[in-house]
Design a protein that fits this description.
Helix content: 55-70%
Distance between the termini: 44 Å
Number of helices: 24
Number of strands: 11
Radius of gyration: 28 Å
Structural class: alpha/beta
């Protein structure tokens, strides 16, 4: 399907005088409506905004391609617009966007929008083509320019493939491109590398790891015969297949903006040989990721893998207490009846994997698969508190597993560096013998040495939390609850969440209850405000507001982000205060939660549930009231 088949004249607007991102989206949605491409513009716009909340669709060079799958879309379609004055669409290069294409894809249309997006980004890499579109005077001229360029491009590709086939040429250079969302930048980097390779006389084959899956996949023969491979990616790609080849690893932005430099380095052989024995540090990129950011990513990798064990195990344990009879044997509460014992054992088994999984996947994030076993063993040793003199001791808990994961990962990286000095003949036994044997031995020594120290610190922290008086406990609840609303999914939110999860591991369930209620308040407060103070919000905000009831009750704080982004100075403080109030009340009422997620679905297993619901109601009403006070009626807003 060609681009011109998807773009109707009614869906084109030229030389628009638009100043803001919201106006641009509204205009493009209206064009789709005029062309009969969508049945409900409000539903479609909500889906567009949901996609924008994940990251901007402005791809730089003055181009923005907002897109979404939606049940409101009748047939696959495009809308296009030029804005000579430009709009700040938060592009990667910070340049204003002047050329817009909005893709409407039906919900059941597969990955059609990805195919269209990749085709568009490839064409739009041509400076002359973009300039021609911006200079178009009529809609017919605009369509004609696209049609001519598309015909020319496909003809070039066909002839290039035919020539290569006739000449029997292979590819000296291969490339793989990928970005976190797997959409625009993936294909822009691929096009830039292919185009520059043709200019320099070094044809490339580029594999794109897009959101629709890997396309133009490199074959074993092509990899074996290639002189070098360029990996332009901001996310993980399959690397084991490049064992022993010269591999240049850079950010996807370098693939877009520095293709000639990358190709030249591969041609000159200024590229290290890749060995798949661990997670390679990107030493070839001019832009290195900050160490703090790396630590955060490794921690989040461990936490994300750990959560299913904590959630599943924690809820089952809580159910065991719900079903048990305390009067039978208070000391064995949770396992007095056979049914309760079943839930307790299954839940306890799942919950018991928490610390090893946390440590294992932190280490794996740092050092790839060889790090997994080292981190896992370190986490297990932290769980039992093993020392040089005792098989079991005081467990350092969550903190100990955290340390085990990072130490284990970096131990494997050090081993990998040391093993570079071994003879080539021993290459095959590194990952199957040396790394696991030496790594497990070293992490065992390290953990036995630090377990008593960290265990004592963990015990002191736990006792300190348990001994907090009424005022201190309430203050702690206010702090962790308020942190959940500061950035709604960002570092502050994650820090409070990890603290709550760590407290579960230490047997302190009140903090997690305060954390979850703090995360539920922002969406609910906004939903209430849009319901009872309609004059404070735009028509679109009033329509999308009720969805936040569901988001909040399901503990999805991110539902408040569009409202916070539109009016941060009023929305964020209101949500912080509401969340802090709810967290404080939850702590004051001794509400407990054994699972780190679930929203209303885990309410049956919350300790002191009625007080928890009261805290939720009060916090939501406080947030709503502050929003009503701080936000001005919409007709008076600047």
């Amino acid at each position: 399907m060609r681009i011109t088949d998807l773009l109707k004249l009614e869906a084109i607007a030229l030389s628009e005088n638009i100043k803001t991102k919201e106006e641009a989206i509204n205009k493009l949605v209206e064009l789709h409506t005029q062309a009969g491409n969508i049945t409900d513009k409000d539903v479609y716009k909500k889906d567009i905004l949901a996609r924008e909340s994940q990251g901007t669709t402005a791809i730089g060079e003055g181009i923005a391609i907002p897109h979404a799958k939606s049940k409101a879309v009748v047939n696959p379609a495009l809308a296009a617009m030029t804005v000579p004055g430009g709009v700040d669409f938060k592009a990667m290069d910070e340049a204003p966007s002047k050329l817009f294409f909005m893709i409407a894809a039906p919900e059941s249309g597969g990955d059609m929008h990805i195919e269209v997006l990749s085709r568009l980004t490839v064409l739009l890499m041509d400076d002359e083509f973009r300039s021609s579109l911006l200079a178009a005077k009529t809609k017919k001229e605009f369509l004609s320019i696209i049609d001519s360029k598309e015909t020319e491009k496909f003809s070039e590709e066909k002839n290039a493939k035919k020539t290569d086939l006739q000449d029997g040429k292979g590819y000296r250079i291969l490339a793989v491109t990928a970005c976190p969302t797997g959409i625009a930048h993936t294909f822009m980097a691929a096009e830039a590398l292919e185009k520059k390779g043709e200019e320099l006389g070094h044809p490339l084959k580029v594999e794109t790891n897009g959101s629709g899956g890997a396309k133009n996949v490199l074959t074993k023969t092509e990899i074996a015969e290639a002189d070098g491979i360029i990996i332009a990616a901001d996310t993980n790609v399959e690397m084991a297949r490049f064992e022993g080849k010269k591999v240049l690893r850079v950010k996807v932005a370098d693939g877009i903006h520095k293709p000639a430099e990358l190709i030249d380095r591969v041609v000159k052989g200024e590229v290290p040989v890749y060995h798949h024995t661990g997670n390679e540090v990107n030493e070839t990129s001019n832009e290195s990721e900050g160490f703090g950011r790396q630590l955060y990513k490794h921690l989040m990798s461990g936490v994300s893998h750990m959560l299913p064990f904590v959630i599943g195990g924690g809820i089952l344990i809580a159910i065991a207490f719900l079903l048990d009879d305390y009067s039978i044997d208070p000391s064995n509460f949770g396992s007095n009846t056979s049914v309760a014992a079943f839930f307790n054992r299954v839940g306890g088994t799942a919950f018991g994997f928490m610390l090893p999984i946390l440590a294992g996947y932190i280490a794996m994030s740092i050092a790839d698969r060889p790090g997994l076993v080292v981190g896992f063993v370190g986490g297990a040793l932290a769980q039992v508190g093993m020392t040089f003199t005792a098989a079991e001791g005081v467990s350092p808990g969550f903190l100990g597993a955290l340390i085990a994961g990072f130490i284990g990962g970096y131990l494997v990286l050090i081993l990998r560096k040391l093993c570079d000095y071994l003879p080539k003949s021993l290459e095959g036994i590194k990952s199957v013998l040396i790394y696991p044997l030496v790594g497990v031995l070293l992490i065992g020594v390290v953990m036995c040495a630090i377990n008593p120290l960290v265990g004592g610190l963990n015990t002191a922290l736990t006792n300190g939390l348990n001994s907090l008086g009424g005022g201190s406990r309430i203050l702690l609840g206010c702090i962790v609850g308020g942190m959940m609303a500061i950035d709604m999914g960002g570092p502050f939110n994650k820090a409070a969440y990890v603290f709550g999860t760590a407290s579960i591991a230490s047997g302190n369930y009140e903090i997690m209850a305060a954390v979850m209620i703090g995360g539920m308040i922002p969406p609910i407060a906004i939903a209430l405000a849009t319901t009872f103070f309609k004059n404070k919000f735009t028509e679109n905000e009033r329509k999308s507001g009720p969805v936040n009831y569901i988001m909040g009750l399901c503990f999805i704080t991110e539902g408040a982000i569009p409202f916070a982004a539109a009016d941060p100075l009023r929305v964020i403080p209101s949500c912080i205060v509401g969340s802090a109030v709810a967290g404080g009340i939850s702590m004051a009422m001794n509400c407990t939660l054994r699972a780190p997620h679930g929203g209303i679905f885990v309410f049956p297993v919350i300790g002191n549930i009625f007080s928890y619901i009261i805290a939720l109601i009060i916090g939501s009403l406080v947030g709503m009231a502050l929003l009503a006070i701080l936000k001005k009626p919409i007709e008076n807003k600047a």
